[in-house]
Known about the structure:
Number of helices: 3
Number of domains: 2
Helix content: under 10%
Radius of gyration: 27 Å
CATH superfamily of the largest domain: paralog of FGE (formylglycine-generating enzyme)
Amino acid sequence: MFRLKSTLPTLALVLASGAFAQNAGTSFCNVTNNSTGMPTTLTGSFGSGVGSDLHLEVTQGVPGELAYFLAGNEATSGVVISNGLNCLIGTGTAQMFRYNVAGSPSSSIGRFDNAGVFQNFVGTSAVGSGFDVPDTIPGSTPITIMSGDTWHFQVWHRDRAVQTSDSNFSNGLSVTFSYPPQPVAGMVRIPAGSFDMGSNAAGGPPYYDDGNQQPVHNVTISEAFWMGEHEVTQAEYQALMGSNPSNFPGPNLPVEQVSWNDARAYCTALTAQEMAAGNLPTGYEYRLPTEAEWEYACRAGTTTEFNVGADLFCADARFWYSYHSTSSCGVSSAAGTIDVGSYSANAFGLYDMHGNVWEWCLDTYASYSPGAVVDPLVTGGSVRVFRGGGWGNGSVDCRSAYRSSGSPGSSDFVIGFRAVLALVLVP
């Protein structure tokens, strides 16, 4: 079912520079120092999980004094009021609202503690201080925050240490709201993070490492992304592409006999569908994972050769032979694949990262270089990477770090793919 997002109960705050940034907003208004000799500082971040998802924090206020938040649809020239500068003055076009409506989610009144940090009185902050902005701007007729809107915030607080006045103001903060990608069903959010990519496993049994996973190097995945919890199934592929090339038919079996080009075409079609439905903001797409994204997601925080530990046994995944139990897993070319999700998920909630079918990645194949890297993507080569091992492989090929490759136009009944929803990349 298509989902068109227009208001903010289900929206998150993102900046034009990219989603999941930790700080939000642009300061305006030259703040005046309060009686402590410091400027009261207003900052924003997304991710409170309530209301508009915008969380505001205030520091360097006057200890013991009351404060509350203001909002406006237009940043105005500063007007001196008592000991501060107010840049959200109501005019013929500009509107100013107070977030101090008692008994509502807009009740932002609080007091600065001994360190000058705003402490919310009425529990409208998930973290105990500051203020979680609700999805409406208060007023005689509440205004729903819409995707694409820019609102401006400022904090008033008392400053009774100044004999001639009892008011002061923080800096202003301008924030533009936008919706994040709305993933299709079955996608798992993978957080940003760092890991050691590759393997120093020995060349003998049971890993038979061939050195292509070296040197081990640190990789940072700087942006969160979504990944299919399982390989693309035949039912999903058929519904979107109108055909099913698989050798082993079954709606819940992974699609196979798809080339890298086929997998890319599927992702392009899914992107077009979800863009038309209003579920993708500019800069996002469905695509194949990079090789680094794939291994990071497969490991899910583990450092062993498999995300289930140092060994892979027949009960752990769909593959042919375990070099740890030195026994066949009873998988034949007549049986082939198994329904996705038949084995336990890893710590990220992803199924079949080991075995079942190999999975195409976005990158071309190249040897690793030493040194830490951020968001690597290899382009320009003649063959493309696939990962994870398949039903016809031994445990050695199913290792988290194991790499293989093939022509982008080739297909096989041991190769499939899974999609990610992430920032646009050009392979």
